[in-house]
UniProtKB/TrEMBL annotation:
PANTHER family: ACETYL-COENZYME A SYNTHETASE, ACETYL-COENZYME A SYNTHETASE 1. GO terms for biological process: acetyl-CoA biosynthetic process from acetate; phenylpropanoid metabolic process. Belongs to the ATP-dependent AMP-binding enzyme family. It catalyses: (E)-4-coumarate + ATP + H(+) = (E)-4-coumaroyl-AMP + diphosphate; (E)-4-coumarate + ATP + CoA = (E)-4-coumaroyl-CoA + AMP + diphosphate; (E)-4-coumaroyl-AMP + CoA = (E)-4-coumaroyl-CoA + AMP + H(+); acetate + ATP + CoA = acetyl-CoA + AMP + diphosphate. Pfam families: ACAS_N (PF16177), AMP-binding (PF00501), AMP-binding_C (PF13193). This is Acetyl-coenzyme A synthetase. Keywords: ATP-binding, Ligase, Magnesium, Nucleotide-binding. Residues 141-528 form the AMP-dependent synthetase/ligase domain. It comes from the Eukaryota. Its EC number is 6.2.1.1. Residues 72-133 form the Acetyl-coenzyme A synthetase N-terminal domain. Its cofactor is Mg(2+). The keyword Cell division does not apply.
Length: 706
């Protein structure tokens, strides 16, 4: 088994480990110092298509936590050459009931040919993430600081909790959970919308050592039942209903059906704690099973507002989060307590250049990893003020986000490219009617952001003065892996730029050989990092087969990546989203970016289809800017755009007009559905209940031959 306990590398080893950031030594420190390249500085002018580089302003860099490429290189080099020392220093800033063994900070084996895959960080150390996220902030004098603002579905619905008030709410629920037999290691399913009760429930579980499994409150009863059967929870926490825009969703009915289904499969859950969400549904209208169902408001509020902490080992499980593919049972990604705590806190701090005065808003739902790491744990571990939003970004109109930004003076805004493109489509007037002067850092998450959307986000939303943290990471990684650090170096629209501290990305070819310099290939990670997931719950074999067997000795991300001559990383999408056209491997993200650069294209999604001559053909679903009619002339113009930007080999074989794309409520495009529509496999569409608008599927089918 290999270890990474901070041994100093042999001569020459440092440069070997740092090959992918060595080109940073050539980076300029200001605009205008590179001949032949168009560049702009934050706050000075708009970023146009011909601008290759966006420089931070001297004022921003001067106040940034990481203010230059050289500072980053020094910190990064330390994190790679002395990981034990680097992460131990960060760990010392948190509270540990018992110290870890300094000689065993990290133990790992990522090579399946040498034995079982194993990763551990700070094993033997005893801590608690809830204590560090809440109590520690109160003890440092910030009890009266706002921990969370809440903005409801309807304008005018809002709330807030200070850190002291948050602790009281967490303790009451934790005491209730203990009273019904929930203890260390027990699983709790949480099926809630974005009420404050959702992060409260996560923190309450963590406080007593229980393992929470948040299920996005949009999954179907069958999907929820699958997760219940897999983790066998002591109870399910839900609410009676929620409104998303004008549409009510009856969550308790979904839970009821899931519990019936799970019982058929041998797993009976005897308790369903239900929060009465009065703005969506009255309790008298809620279907009820008296021997199983309990109202949150009737029991939790009666419990004491103080609750002892359960101190857990750094390697004890913190949460399960299920990811679902197009086939097979969901994968229960398991994250542990200590390393995840350090990693989410540190990535949040540096990737957003966090300051104690910031008001931070991430639009993600806690049903996804982004909501775990960057709505709940990462921000609170830094003592931040977080905004939790129950509603949808286009209700009552497409200006809702910017109305909220102005209302709370949001300084850091973190969202998905899909939302950015959707708001682009609706027009700039919804943005510019609001001030947005409080914003200072923007962020992007979920998929590669195409350069035209990046520039719109930068120019329109950020008034050309806010750097964009275009983050690449995964449910499995726990936190950011490749990301800009605002103020540290210049940005290239659409690039995730450089690796975070402790992360060693490599690009390999199909034989698993590392490729140097400017290249494209499969993105893998060499060596572990504290936030890495430890297993797939109950299926370590699948964990090894999926992530470590494709390229022995590496964590295989499943993503394709290009690295340019300056060392910048460009994510090209899932490798299963790579289309092989007559021997040309074409990333779907690359074709989508070319399509969206067309002035009349608002959004695009590309999939591969069987082609009798080329092996695979390129099938593009295209959403046009509002008011633009479908036409054969426009179809040809879109194809020409791709030919001009990428090459004739990448020209779409089919342009399928799309009034909208099938997306989850978090904005993720469900590409498996698009593949089935493209292949005319309409009887294999599968579960579409998680879509924000299931009706879009019928619209796409109706337009198949247009």
């Amino acid at each position: 088994m290999g270890t990474a306990n901070g041994e100093q590398p042999a001569a020459g080893a440092s440069s070997d480990k740092l090959r992918h950031v060595e080109s940073m030594s050539q980076l300029p420190s200001g605009a205008g110092k590179i001949s032949g390249i168009n560049a702009v500085v934050l706050g000075e002018s708009l970023a146009a298509e011909e601008n290759d580089l966006i420089f931070p302003s001297p004022e921003f860099s001067a106040n940034a936590l990481v203010s230059s490429p050289n500072q980053y290189r020094e910190m990064y080099e330390r994190s790679i050459n002395d990981p034990a020392g680097f992460w131990s220093e960060i760990a010392e800033t948190f509270f540990w009931k018992e110290k870890w063994n300094p000689s065993e900070v990290c133990s790992e084996n990522l090579d399946v040919t040498k034995g079982p895959v194993e990763i551990s960080w700070f094993k033997g150390g005893k801590t608690n993430i809830c204590y560090n996220a809440v109590d520690r902030n109160i003890e440092s004098g910030n009890g009266d600081k706002i921990a969370m603002y809440w903005e409801g579905n309807e304008t005018g619905q809002d709330g807030k909790l200070t850190y002291s008030e948050l602790l009281e709410k967490v303790c009451q629920l934790a005491n209730y959970l203990k009273s019904v037999g929930v203890g260390k290691g027990d699983a709790v399913i949480i099926y809630l919308p974005m009420l404050l009760e959702l992060p409260i429930a996560m923190l309450a579980c963590a406080r007593i050592g229980a393992v929470h499994s948040v299920v996005f409150a949009g999954f179907s009863a069958d999907s929820l039942a699958q997760r219940i059967v897999d983790c066998k929870p002591k109870l399910v926490i839900t609410c009676n209903a929620v409104k998303r825009g004008v549409k009510p969703i009856f969550l308790k009915d979904i839970v009821d059906a899931a519990l019936v289904e799970s019982e058929k499969n041998g797993v009976s859950v005897g308790l369903c704690l239900t929060y009465e969400n009065q703005s969506a549904m009255k309790r008298d209208d809620t279907k009820w099973k008296a021997e199983r169902d309990v109202w949150w408001q009737d029991v939790v509020t009666k419990f004491p507002t103080k609750c002892d902490v359960e101190w857990v080992d750094a390697e004890d499980p913190l949460f399960l989060l299920y990811t679902s593919g197009s086939t097979g049972k969901p994968k229960g990604v398991l994250h542990t307590s200590g390393g995840y705590m350090l990693y989410t806190a540190t990535t949040f701090k540096y990737a957003f250049d966090y300051k104690p005065t910031d008001i931070y808003w991430c639009t993600a739902d806690c049903g996804w990893i982004t909501g775990h790491s960057y709505v709940t744990y990462g921000p609170l571990l830094n003592g931040a003020t977080v905004l939790v939003f129950e509603g949808t970004p286009n209700y009552p109109d497409s200006g809702r986000c910017w109305d909220i930004v102005d209302k709370y003076n949001v300084t850091i805004f973190y969202t998905a490219p899909t939302l950015v493109r959707s708001l682009m489509r609706d027009g700039t007037e919804y943005v510019t009617r609001y001030s947005r002067k409080s914003l200072r850092v923007l962020g992007s998450v979920g998929e590669p952001i195409n350069p035209s959307a990046w520039r719109w986000f930068y120019n329109i939303v950020g008034d050309s003065r806010c750097p964009i943290s275009d983050t690449w990471w995964q449910t499995e990684t726990g936190g950011f892996m490749i990301t800009p650090l605002p103020g540290a170096w210049h940005q290239k629209p659409g690039s995730a730029t450089f690796p975070f501290f402790g992360v060693q990305p490599v690009i390999v070819d199909e034989k698993g050989q590392e490729i140097e310099g400017e290249c494209s290939g499969y993105l893998c990670i060499k060596k572990s990092w504290p936030g890495a997931f430890r297993t797939l719950y109950g299926d370590h074999e699948r964990y090894e087969t999926t992530y470590f067997k494709p390229f022995a000795g590496y964590y295989f991300t499943g993503d394709g990546c290009s690295r340019d001559k300056d060392g910048y990383h460009w994510l090209t999408g899932r490798v299963d989203d790579v289309i092989n056209v007559s021997g040309h491997r074409i990333g779907t993200a690359e074709v989508e970016s070319a399509l969206v650069s067309h002035p009349q294209c608002a959004e695009a999604a590309v999939v591969g289809v069987e082609h009798e001559v080329k092996g695979q053909g390129i099938y593009a679903f295209v959403t046009l800017v509002d008011g633009v009619p479908y036409s054969e002339e426009l179809r040809k113009s879109l194809i020409i755009t791709v030919r001009n930007q990428i090459g004739a080999f990448a020209a779409p074989d089919k342009i399928h007009w799309a009034p909208g794309l099938p997306k989850t409520r978090s904005g993720k495009i469900m590409r498996r559905i698009l593949r089935k529509i493209a292949a005319r496999q309409l009887d294999e569409l599968g579960d579409i209940s998680t879509l924000a608008d299931p009706g879009v599927v019928d619209q796409l089918i109706a337009l198949s031959d247009c």
